[in-house]
Automatic annotation (TrEMBL):
It comes from the Eukaryota. PANTHER family: BEIGE/BEACH-RELATED (PTHR13743), PROTEIN FAN (PTHR13743:SF123). PROSITE patterns: BEACH. Gene3D superfamilies: BEACH domain (1.10.1540.10). InterPro entries: BEACH_dom (IPR000409), BEACH_dom_sf (IPR036372), BEACH_Domain (IPR050865). Residues 1-112 form the BEACH domain. Residues 162-182 are annotated as: Disordered. This is BEACH domain-containing protein.
């Protein structure tokens, strides 16, 4: 069971690409690719584009990494839209096309060899509504933070979750769902 599509069709089987001899071979080759020297060297650039310094503002523009303005909206922005029709349109756009992930880093992500520097880049206040401070980052970008919000009551935004054990059978899955709903 691999979930359902948007049209409620259950996905149970996948077609492996021709270069994979088996599901294990597929995983083995993908793991080898993801752990390759090329990925190790380029992963920080990807992190910058998706979660970091080049995901918003002037750095995003310079990196040709801009999206429609509605992709940057957060819940407080939706609440501030003047009409319910605009809120519905923004929610539909987010559902159909997605939103830009929360900002995690304001500085360029360090390479694998510089990971001891990582702690200095992570800030608890960074997230959906945060903009990094640089010369023009916030120019022409939607302000997504409620300035009057009481930050003393905000909880830590990020937490590490343990991966739940997946039920082995359909019956176990149904039983787990019933237990969650009761």
């Amino acid at each position: 069971q691999l979930g359902t599509t948007q049209t409620s069709i259950h996905v149970n089987d996948v077609i492996l690409p021709p270069w994979a001899k088996s599901p294990k071979d597929f995983l083995k080759k993908n793991r080898r690719a993801l752990e390759s020297e090329y990925c190790t060297k380029t992963l920080p650039r990807w992190i910058d584009l998706i979660f970091g310094a080049k995901s918003r503002g002037i750095r995003a523009k310079e990196s040709m990494n801009l999206f429609h303005s509605s992709a940057y909206l957060c819940p407080t922005d939706l609440e501030s839209l003047p009409t319910s029709q605009e809120r519905i349109q923004a929610e539909l756009q987010a559902t159909e096309f997605g939103i830009v992930p929360d900002l995690l880093f304001c500085e360029e992500h360090p390479s694998k060899n510089d990971l001891e520097l990582l702690d200095s880049f992570v800030e608890a206040s960074i997230g959906r509504g945060h903009h990094c401070e640089d010369e023009t980052t916030t120019t022409n970008i939607i302000t997504t933070m409620n300035e009057e919000q009481d930050t003393s009551t905000q909880k830590e935004q990020w937490e590490i979750l343990q991966t739940p054990k997946t039920p082995a059978t359909r019956e176990e899955s149904l039983e787990a769902k019933q237990q969650q709903s009761s």
